[in-house]
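[Discussion] Sanity-checking designs against the backbone

I'm trying to build intuition for which residues belong where. Below is a structure token string of 80 positions. I'd appreciate it if someone posts a full sequence so I can compare it with mine line by line.
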């Protein structure tokens, strides 16, 4: 009976090790994901503008698609 108890304890310990390792791996992956997300947010805030804002500032995405808007943009580029 004592041998069976020791074997059960050993088996429980052996099963616990892979579960602990899996938990550690999942925590590391989650931490890496959080760090990637945070890095992206920092880069976005340091650049000062998101992509839509940068396109609008450059005159690319102003919502104006008429010929006059295109000519104005080209004139502005030519004079720069």
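Best answer:
Here's mine. Compare freely.
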């Amino acid at each position: 009976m004592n041998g069976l108890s020791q074997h059960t304890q050993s088996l429980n310990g052996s099963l616990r090790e892979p579960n602990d390792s899996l938990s550690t791996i999942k925590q590391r992956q989650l931490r890496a994901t959080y760090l990637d997300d945070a890095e992206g947010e920092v880069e976005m805030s340091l650049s000062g503008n998101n992509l839509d804002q940068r396109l609008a500032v450059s005159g690319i995405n102003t919502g104006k698609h008429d010929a006059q808007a295109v000519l104005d943009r080209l004139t502005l580029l030519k004079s720069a």
